[in-house]
């Protein structure tokens, strides 16, 4: 009789509100949420978090691939960038997630002289222009300038000045940037670096003239922004990032033309021993990262 009462009480508990094993199994789980709801949630998350949650289960994985999720992470000007580095034909066969992933990787264009990618967190553009994409006075005369190979440049070579009276490096770019604040900097070094017995050494024998007069940096944009500054080149044997100027992009899907330069054209003395690696356009808040790198 005791056993009968016990089993009856157990049955009553199971039917009267306590959770039985069968009812536990029938409760909704994460995999039961509609994919459309999960995708809508993902639109409010950063891309790294979306990728983490995509590992939870199959429903989350499928929801994380929705085109409208990744289109919300792409800047309004992404089609300009995608056409430039991926090509219109390739874009037509790619999902928005694939386009986003590809644009977040460094992509070369203009014959490999420029490199661009999309920052995952800010959605802004980072762009590098090699010395070969810049107009350098006297670059075709081997008495003054040479391109020298080096592993210290992402483009595997830099322009090296031996000696010259008139030094001028000019760049121009027309591009559609996502809305935001950007900085343009030159990456320069006094001296020619090489490796000897596995160690980095820098020859500074030809470095001269940069302590007499400062270098002038200029920047102007097609929408009227401009910047002008002067400073002496410093730190022989080290790569230094020199800020040319800042500019703000307020209108998406509109190309902006940028002209910039560095010049030391005082012909009372010669200048030499300068390496020009690249010009860089990056979100203004990234300038400190460049210095640390």
Automatic annotation (TrEMBL):
Domain of life per record: Eukaryota
CDD domains: F-box_AtSKIP3-like
SUPFAM superfamilies registered for this protein in UniProt: F-box domain (SSF81383)
Species for this entry: Glycine max (Soybean)
Region of interest (Disordered), ranges: 1-30
Annotated protein name in UniProt: F-box domain-containing protein
Coiled-coil annotated residue ranges, if any: none
Gene from which the chain derives: LOC100782620
Pfam family name, one: PP2
């Amino acid at each position: 009789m005791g056993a009968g009462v016990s089993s009856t009480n157990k049955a009553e508990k199971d039917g009267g509100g306590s959770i039985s094993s069968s009812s536990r199994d029938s409760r909704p789980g994460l995999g039961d949420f509609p994919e459309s709801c999960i995708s809508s949630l993902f639109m409010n998350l950063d891309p790294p978090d979306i990728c983490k949650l995509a590992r939870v289960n199959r429903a989350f994985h499928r929801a994380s691939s929705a085109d409208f999720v990744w289109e919300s992470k792409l800047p309004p000007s992404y089609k300009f960038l995608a056409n430039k580095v991926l090509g219109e034909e390739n874009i037509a066969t790619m999902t928005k997630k694939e386009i986003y992933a590809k644009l977040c990787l460094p992509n070369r264009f203009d014959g490999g002289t420029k490199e661009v990618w999309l920052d995952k967190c800010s959605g802004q553009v980072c762009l590098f222009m090699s010395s070969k994409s810049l107009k350098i006075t006297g670059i075709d005369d081997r008495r003054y300038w040479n391109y020298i190979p080096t592993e210290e440049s992402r483009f595997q070579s830099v322009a090296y000045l031996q000696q010259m009276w008139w030094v001028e490096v000019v760049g121009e770019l027309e591009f559609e940037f996502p809305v935001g604040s950007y900085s343009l900097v030159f990456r320069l070094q006094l001296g020619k670096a090489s490796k000897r017995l596995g160690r980095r050494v820098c020859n500074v024998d030809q470095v001269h003239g940069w302590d007499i007069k400062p270098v002038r940096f200029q920047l102007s944009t097609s929408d009227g922004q401009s910047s002008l500054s002067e400073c002496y080149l410093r730190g022989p044997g080290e790569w230094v990032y020199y800020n040319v100027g800042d500019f703000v992009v307020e209108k998406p899907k509109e190309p902006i033309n940028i002209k910039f330069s560095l010049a030391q054209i005082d012909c009372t003395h010669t200048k030499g021993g300068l390496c020009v690696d690249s010009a860089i356009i990056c979100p203004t808040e990234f300038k400190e990262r460049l210095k640390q790198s």
